[in-house]
Write a structure and sequence with these properties.
- By secondary structure, this protein is mostly beta strands.
- A four-stranded antiparallel β-sheet has the order 1-2-3-4, with no helix packed on it.
- The two termini are 17 Å apart.
Length: 59
């Protein structure tokens, strides 16, 4: 089976959901947020205090 491109590493909430997704090829972290799942979803790069993308080391 092929390796998943994106993996969820954090999940919080049932109605107001926040997830952190990691790109397994680049290591870049994304934050995905949704409000009650009927109003839409937003996703953006997760950054540190200096505004640089958070990157997880990938194997």
């Amino acid at each position: 089976m092929a390796k998943e491109r994106f993996v969820e590493v954090y999940n919080q909430g049932i109605v107001n959901v926040v997830r952190i997704i990691v790109d397994t090829e680049t290591g870049v972290n994304y934050v995905l947020g949704s409000h009650n799942k009927a109003s839409g979803t937003g996703m953006t790069v997760l950054v540190d205090a200096d505004g640089k993308p958070i990157v997880t080391t990938v194997n």
